[in-house]
Amino acid sequence: MPESTETLIVGGGLVGTSLALALDAAGRVATLVEAGAPRPVIANGEDDDRNLALARASVNALQALHVWPLLEAFAGTIRRVEVSRAGEFGRVRMSAVDAGVDTLGRVVPGRVLGAALQQRLDACRNLQRLLPAQLIALAPRDSGWRARIASGNGERELDATLLVGADGSDSLVRQLTGIGAQAHAYAQSLFVCTVAVDRDIPECAFERFSDDGPVALLPLPNGRRGLVLTIAAARHEEVAAMDDAAFMALAQQRFGWKLGALSRPGKRFPHRIRRVLADALTAQRTVLVGNAAQTVHPIGAQGFNLGLRDALTLAELIAASDDPGAAPVMNEYATRRAADRDGVLAFSHGLASLACLPQPALAPLRSLAMLAMDAVPPLRHVLARHGMGFRGAPPAAALERGP
Ligand SMILES: Cc1cc2nc3c(=O)[nH]c(=O)nc-3n(C[C@H](O)[C@H](O)[C@H](O)COP(=O)(O)OP(=O)(O)OC[C@H]3O[C@@H](n4cnc5c(N)ncnc54)[C@H](O)[C@@H]3O)c2cc1C
């Protein structure tokens, strides 16, 4: 006899676990299936595969989910952002003061965030967790799906009213429910590590573009910086094989000397970059969230921020519905997420295409555009608000709370 649940969340990455927490807080029954082993709780996030820049809306949301207190001690603060391009004269500067807020965003090591979310999951009362366990097959039913799930103890069947694909870029939920996807390889790789700098400008995030792609330095709380260095994919093996001195020389040449000498790199993590866009966000009694719905270029630091807003919007709709898999809920979800998704996709892809590609003829225009944005406060304000995650119809949990 199959077991049953209301919402089956496939994938317990950052977005799936956020959704599980939000549903539990709303008192709704759900099951979370995650293929990977539990994340170790780590006390020091210095050697992490990515440092996530969290938009202000995401910090608000993590506060609402009671996750933020577990992260605060590990979080760097962004009060200013400076975007520039090597060899061109324009630059865009945004500041929290100009935007009328105390911070533009925060930076946390990805695994610390994962461990904090998981710690909160332990206190959930309406959530069943299957881990490590994997969705392997789906069969449609009149009022939902029957999922086949494999774990070390064998296979089981689970009926759900609503199926959520939070299973990442190569989503099996997406494939099994017949939602197509378009993939685009950027022919770029990223190398991520932490570094020390000689002359820090605290609480300022830097992003510098060049013909070879962007390089970012994010502020971390321990006086170090999170380095994200993009290179052409053809150089992946060469850069991966570099010793620390050669890698630092490359990073220095790409970022310049704004913060003095870069040194003492931590462990280096390589990532190959691609964009994967689902053709639709929903199917019959199915919703995609996070990377399963859209995997964007990390250049704009938007992937998790966007996925969190997916998860919280969905949780809001489920909480207000007697039948969370019903067509009106699916339609409402797709409608509510459209503007935010389209905006972030255009921003991330546009940034990747325009700012990274060697198009000398565009250089003066790029510089002028940057100068214009820097000089015209309302433009900068819009950019800052979008960067803070307030675009379209944000979920209530992401909004500012009064004192
Ligand atoms: C270098 C780098 C830097 C980044 N920086 C930022 C940033 O600064 N800000 C930001 O917002 N975003 C950033 N991102 C993007 C962000 O990391 C991702 O968007 C986010 O982690 C996606 O989370 P997810 O839960 O949707 O997907 P995933 O993390 O891919 O999780 C999917 C989960 O599903 C599980 N799974 C898969 N198949 C199954 C199955 N059949 N059954 C059960 N479980 C399954 C997997 O084990 C996995 O745990 C960055 C990305 C990279 C690569």
Question: Any overview of this molecule?
Answer:
With 403 residues, the chain is of the alpha+beta class. The chain has a single domain (3-183, 281-398), classed as FAD/NAD(P)-binding domain (3-Layer(bba) Sandwich), CATH 3.50.50.60. Helix content is 33%, strand content 31%. The protein contains 12 helices and 20 strands. The chain has helices at 14-25, 56-64, 68-71, 96-99, 110-121, 172-176, 236-240, 244-255, 303-319, 327-356, 363-375, 377-387; strands at residues 3-10, 30-33, 51-55, 76-78, 80-85, 91-95, 105-109, 127-130, 133-141, 144-151, 154-165, 181-197, 204-209, 215-219, 225-232, 262-263, 269-278, 282-283, 286-288, 294-295. Strands 5, 6, 12, 13, 14, 15, 16, 17 and 20 form a 9-stranded mixed beta sheet that branches. Strands 1, 2, 8, 9, 10, 11, 18 and 19 form an 8-stranded mixed beta sheet that branches. Helix 1 (14-25) links the parallel strand 1 and strand 2 (30-33). Helix 1 (14-25) packs parallel to helix 5 (110-121) and helix 9 runs antiparallel to helix 10 (327-356). The radius of gyration is 21 Å and the shape is globular. The termini are far apart. The model has no long low-confidence stretch (mean pLDDT 88). The site of flavin-adenine dinucleotide has 32 residues, from helix 1, strand 3, strand 9, strand 12 and helix 9.
